[in-house]
Amino acid sequence: MNKVYSDARTALAGLVKDGMTIMAGGFGLCGIPETLIEAIRDSGAKDLTFISNNAGIDGVGLGRLLETRQIRKMISSYVGENKTFAQQYLSGELELEFNPQGTLAERIRAGGAGIPAFYTRTGVGTLIAEGKEVREFNGEKYVMETGLFADISIVHAFKGDTEGNLVYRKTARNFNPMMATASRLTIAEVEHLVPAGEIDPDCIHTPGIFVKRLVHVANPVKRIEQRTTRKREETV
């Protein structure tokens, strides 16, 4: 089976529909599947639910789908860098399900492992626990959280082979590996596409069995979300 598609739009053809739930990898602007996000924008699909740690920034990443109002709901951890997100949420246009970051990561991992729910101490006694089951174990209270599973996952990898085996680079190995397991179909954009067998099996982060479609995106733009610099020291 050929998993490699000529471009992102072709890879998504026939898959993206109104009302779908989609997982999008990345942390901030690091490791986000920006080319696939743009293809989803071009599809015109609306009323989408996105599971993503954050929502990019204005005009970048999922911020582009917020601008076109294609997202109905976000299941996220941190969204503080996106003014469009804040405006839509405060005006009631956008539904938001907030999660502590570790809880979000575990909900995704649980979904990929076939675990419907689990208990955690995080959030007990706060707004996070409202409406959820709370049980006591060994004298401590725990809140029940459900696993997350999506229709489609879109991820970004540094390297991939034609069988869909993926390698993520450094910080970009964030939510991508978990999300690749937690949907009915995973599509990956890869910076370096190599023949099957070229990647050392011990270096594979996501086995190809989880990946159904691939897009080669060479030399993607690496954006910096928060640029921090120091004053150059004066030379005598």
UniProtKB/TrEMBL annotation:
Give the signal sequence positions. Answer: none
Source organism superkingdom = Bacteria
One of the Pfam families matching this protein, by short name = CoA_trans
Q: Which InterPro entries match?
A: 3-oxoacid_CoA-transf_A, CoA_trans_fam_I, CoA_transf_BS, NagB/RpiA_transferase-like
Kindly list the GO molecular function terms attached to this UniProt entry.
Answer: CoA-transferase activity
Q: Keywords on this record?
A: Transferase
Family matches, as PANTHER family? ACETATE COA-TRANSFERASE SUBUNIT ALPHA, KETOACID-COENZYME A TRANSFERASE
- Tell me its family: Belongs to the 3-oxoacid CoA-transferase subunit A family.
Record's protein name:
Succinyl-CoA:3-ketoacid-CoA transferase
